[in-house]
Amino acid sequence: MAVIDRLAWARTAGARLTTPLHPDDYLSLVNPLWTARELRGRIERVVPETEDAATVVIRPGWGWRYDHKPGQYVGIGIQVEGKFHWRSYSVSSPPRRDGRTIAITVRAMPEGFLSQHLVDGLEPGTIVRLALPAGEFVLPDPPPARMLMLVGGSGITPVMSMLRTLDRRGTMPDVVVHYSSTSEERMIFRDEVCALADRHDGLTLHRRHTDDEGVLDLADLDTIVPDWRERETWACGPAPMLDAVEEHWERAGLDDSLHLERFSLKLDGDGGEGGTLRFQNSGRSIEVDGATTVLEAGEQAGVGMPYGCRVGICHTCTLTLVSGTVRDLRTGDEYDDTHDSVQTCVTVPVGDCTLAI
Amino acid sequence: MAISDVKEYTHLTTEEVDQLGRELDALRAEVEESRGADDAAYINRIITIQRRLAVAGRITLFASRWRPAWVAGAAMLGVAKILENMEIGHNVMHGQWDWMNDPEIHSSTWEWDTAQPAEQWKHSHNYVHHQFTNVLGHDNDIGYGILRMAHEQRWHPANLGQPVYNALLATLFQWGVALHDLDLEAIRKREKDPKVLAKQLAQIKRKISRQIGKDYVFFPLLTAATGPANVVPTITANATANLARNLWSYMIIFCGHFPDGALHFTEEELEDETRAEWYLRQMLGSANFEGGRLLHVMSGQLGYQIEHHLFPDLPSNRYAQMSVRVRELAAKYDIPYTTGPLHRQYGQALRTIMKLSLPNRFTATDQPAQPGQATADTQVERGRRTDAERPTRSAQTGDWYSRSSSGGSSRGSSGGAS
Fold first, then answer.
1. What does the alpha-carbon distance between residue A32 and residue B80 come to, in Å, rounded to a whole number?
2. Who contacts A66 (Cβ-Cβ below 8 Å, separation ≥6)?
3. How far apart are alpha carbons A141 and A72 in whole angstroms?
């Protein structure tokens, strides 16, 4: 701790010399990773996995913590045509305290220009912005005795991080992985998953190529994984698959043992009541319903709202509440204290609100 | 009376004014759509150059007891401070670079290397000055409450001292600017909200103590490491750099609205002002100056003051190219477009300062006659409007953000996940 305290002191002292800037603003001139102002990373290499998917290996800069939980995702901000765009991707590398890099695996989506850019257009050496790992879709430590992984397509990435962790720690329990992909060629980490299954007796792998075999009918689980009801289950894949899984587990009364990872933000909380949203300093206001986030409303009103990941991870969009109440759509929590910091991308107004911007 | 009754554009019909507005809107949209990697590279390059210059200047001053090092260090630091205030700070705080979505170069977080806290600057400049440009009694930048800059402003015997006040303002410019948003007159009349005053004073105190600490305490003391004889020369070099920045920014800013040809307006012209009329007022109330690329960078592109006032939140590196189009529009609609070499523009501003130290009966106006508009007979009272007395604000002058909860936290302390 003493070292950290001294570092903090040196930074505070340094800031007296660099004011109004931060020492990191100058240190990053020497090495772009020497700044904790905004988390940064440098692209080390882009490894093709399949025709349309690649693993991007990133070396994070100052302020990064390598202790992500297997299964979590990170926010990544890339400057394209001068503008930072943010997305979240699951970390596919296992956590290592002595780590130097993290890896995310990305599939280029037809209309996803950022994923396309990540897979095709990212030169090693590019500096990107990062947001710390987040997400509840994680591997418990110690792992449960019996696990089931239902994977569709690029949903393999968080699962891969879990499997690699179990492999590295030598704590592979009884795990069944059911991995669906449109074809063999498009199956990300195909060889590695097979190799893991060969190496660990506890790991059973079912592969399914949906172009030929069609998607898995969950009723067939009884024959493929007869003891699925006794297994703690992690499911990650496209939304229709997850909806079906969720319904199936709910019907079996087993939703407590199911973990889902959706690629898109799912706002479970009730909407707010809506109201008039005022932006104090710009003097603008807008009437909104209870389903429009504060961020969207601000943008509609023409306020230069800061934003980042837009899914509640990176906190770039945080603003100070002046008056009124907002509700967090993820949790249903309400914030009504003056000076509360609210994440505008995941909150909606409950009645009239004023924000300091 | 609306602004379109002013002589310079009585020849324009309402439709023509609206058409001009649409053409300027189209120009704006064109630039907004074409902002891209080159623009981002430009501001990042300027920021890198500025920071390297600042570092080089500070390091050189570790040998400041040696005269050539003193000169080189002060010069580099002076240029760095000018760049930081003019091309970077002023423009970033207008929101010109907010489109990059980069929290490190954003109007809501930027703090600049001068005595005035960014938050107060964004109010007094982005809002009050840019929205009410050259409207007597509304735009506090007409003489900064110190100088009488328009015939319509009531003369007072104290104005006789203008040549002296002007020299003091130029020399101490950053301190004058630091107090600008306080509204000293309202404080004197005890009309200022004590809460707001206390908050503003706390912000100014904190900012000034950090600025003075850096330039006149910590860096000079550090240079003692290479010999105690460096301490005093470092102090004088830093003071010289600050003085150079003060004089330069004072001069550039006085060329923006005070040369002959830049018109003043009265409150009546604000009534029912349309967006197109706002554009017109910006064009008529601002003055450009001519010069090379380096001059424009060093003045934060304020040589394109007309373009800056039309599009305060568009990236400054685009003003040069936009000026070609704006000039064409001015010619097409037969509207004056005031410009000239820097020395002439400043000379005219200086002449106005000298002349208006005297009552109107001793002087003739250098402004073109403006029948139907503010005349020398119109007398505007001193004192400022409060925000509550002002019309609602326009959307594109750059926001101002009140970080009331943090009492003016520095951007350094919000340093992410350290």
1. 21
2. A60, A95, A96, A97, A98, A99, A102
3. 14
Chain A residues touching B37 at Cβ < 8 A: 79, 81-82
Which residue from B minimizes the CA distance to A83? B100
Instruction: Spell out a b/e string for B370-384, using b for 16 or more CB atoms within 10 Å of the CB, else e.
Output: beebbebebebeeeb
Torsion of CA B19, B22, B26, B28, to 10 degrees: 120
Measured between CA atoms, how close is A240 to chain B, in angstroms?
33
Cβ of A280 under 8 Å from any chain B Cβ? yes
Which among A15, A284, A316 has the least Cβ separation from residue B103?
A: A316
Identify the CA nearest to B142 among candidates B288, B290, B352: B352
Q: Are A246 and A258 in contact (CB under 8 A)?
A: yes
| pLDDT tens-digit profile, chain A (357 residues) | 567 788 888 888 899 999 999 999 999 999 999 988 888 999 999 998 988 899 999 999 998 888 789 999 888 889 989 988 888 888 988 887 667 899 999 888 776 777 888 888 788 999 999 988 888 899 998 999 999 999 999 899 999 999 999 999 999 999 999 999 999 999 999 999 999 999 999 999 999 999 999 999 999 999 999 999 999 999 999 888 999 999 999 999 998 999 988 755 545 455 667 888 998 877 788 988 878 889 989 988 888 788 877 777 667 788 888 888 888 887 778 888 877 788 898 888 888 999 988
Please compute Rg for chain B using Cα positions.
22
The DSSP call for residue B380 is B
Q: Chain B contact for A37, CB < 8 A?
A: yes
Q: Of the candidates A161, A188, A182, A163, which has an alpha carbon nearest to the alpha carbon of residue A173?
A: A163
Contact between A158 and A137 under an 8 Å Cβ cutoff? The reply is yes
Burial of A238 by CB count in 10 Å (0-12 exposed, 13-18 middle, 19+ buried)? Answer: middle
* Closest-CA residue of chain B to A64: B417
Decide if A104 contacts A74 (C-beta within 8 A). Answer: yes
Which sign does the torsion angle of CA B126, B131, B133, B135 carry?
Answer: negative
Q: How far is B380 from chain A (nearest CA, A)?
A: 28
Among B37, B402, B415, the residue with its CB nearest the CB of A82 is: B37
Pairing of strands A146-152, A174-181: parallel
Q: Which two tokens mark A121?
A: 């257009």
CA distance B339 to chain A (A): 32
- CA atoms of B316 and B307, how far apart (whole Å): 9
DSSP classification of residue B414: G
DSSP A123: P
Other C-beta atoms closer than 10 Å to the C-beta of B139 total 21
pTM: 0.85
From the list B39, B104, B222, the residue facing A37 with the nearest CB is B104
Neighbouring residues of B403: CB distance < 8 A, sequence distance ≥ 6: A320, A356, B119, B409
- What end-to-end distance do the CA atoms of chain B give, in Å? 57
